[in-house]
Amino acid sequence: MKMSNRLYDILVYVAQIILPALATLWAALGKIWNWPLVPEISATICAVDAFMGALLKISSIQYNKAKNAEEQ
């Protein structure tokens, strides 16, 4: 699947900044305010983040291979 550079940049920002910050915020506030399922929700956010990171890395590798093939 090809994606635009803008979409890639947005997804990288979400994976590197937004989701880790959200998981940390949820874990901290959940403990303070005694919210239910705090570990489960935080772990789910982290799992989604790890999956996104893996997909973005695969996309980056494929993009670089295609770019190198075009240059040669």
What can you see in these coordinates?
The chain is an all-alpha fold and 72 residues long. 88% of the residues lie in helices and 0% in strands. It contains two helices and no strands. The chain has helices spanning 5-33, 38-71. It is elongated, with a radius of gyration of 16 Å. The model has no long low-confidence stretch (mean pLDDT 96).
Instruction: Report the helical percentage.
Output: over 70%
Helices and strands: which structural class?
Answer: mainly alpha
Major sheet, described briefly? Answer: none
Radius of gyration: 16 Å
Oligomeric state of this protein: single chain
What is the count of helical runs?
2
Mean pLDDT: 96
Strand proportion: under 5%
Terminal Cα span: 23 Å
What would you say about this model in short?
By secondary structure, this protein is mainly α.
Please give the structural blueprint.
Elements: H1 5-33, H2 38-71
Helix pairs in contact: 1-2
Highlighted features:
72 residues, mainly alpha
